[in-house]
Amino acid sequence: MPIANATKPRNIISQPLTRSSFAPYGDVVENPVAHHVNSIPSALPSSPVPFILANQNTALKASPVSSVQNLYHESLTKKDARPVMSMFACFPRPLDLDAAGKSIFRVRILERHPFTTQTFIPMGLSPDDLSTKYLVIVAPALPSEQHQQKGPPDIQNLRAYVAHGRQAVTYGAGTWHAPMVVVGRKRIDFVVIQSVNGVSEDDCQEVEIEQEGLSVSVPLNGRSSTGAAKL
To answer: Are the C-beta atoms of residues 123 and 191 closer than 8 Å to each other?
Structure first.
């Protein structure tokens, strides 16, 4: 596995995941209708993608809410890819404490899917549940003479976001990101949608981050590497 040098220890402050802040890296899917609204509103809610009435006026539909890309024709192998839907049961990650006693997650691996978007859709996590969230950790690609915009990750411009149970996230094709990081008390199950062609280098590329070189602050209180967490 290639190694990405973090140059010197850095801690990234995580921020709430929003559609606008994440736009350079992909899409955020989030319903603007409050989760306690259980009847069709008299006025259609404002949304980046306009709602329309559907299903005999018993539903609101917005489409498309996220990009779906299959760029495998750009790969060196040119091997056709197929869409796949998978399930990931992601368990809470162990966290460390920094010198100030605050929770941090050490970033050790980044990966990318160079020719496909990848969408994570959380299931079963209530938006009112403050005990569990997930981190979305991304980095742009450095320029490459061989493949434009498909070089190694730009560690110096890594970003970290905190997502909740009402948010799905799509990583843009070629976006470097950490494998899914759940923090808090509970497991989160995700439906994951992407394309694959079965060629490992086409489907997923990984780099290892220099040991202890990069971490993300996590908005938790009182969690050690083995302890419970409070959000």
So the answer is: yes
- Which helix or strand (DSSP H or E) is residue 49 part of? none
Task: Compute the distance between CA of residue 210 and CA of residue 67 in angstroms, rounded to an integer.
Answer: 32
User: CA 193, CA 178: separation in Å to the nearest integer?
Assistant: 17
Residues 6+ apart with CB under 8 A from 56: none
Dump pLDDT digits (tens) for 178-200.
999 999 999 999 999 999 999 99
**Main-chain phi, psi angles of 22, to 5 degrees:** -90, -5
Report how far residue 119's alpha carbon sits from residue 111's, in angstroms, rounded to the nearest whole number: 14
For residues 169, 175, 176, 180, the Cα torsion angle rounded to the nearest 10 degrees is 20
Q: List the one residue out of 165, 181, 168 whose CA is nearest residue 217.
A: 181
Looking at residue 67, what is its pLDDT?
A: 95
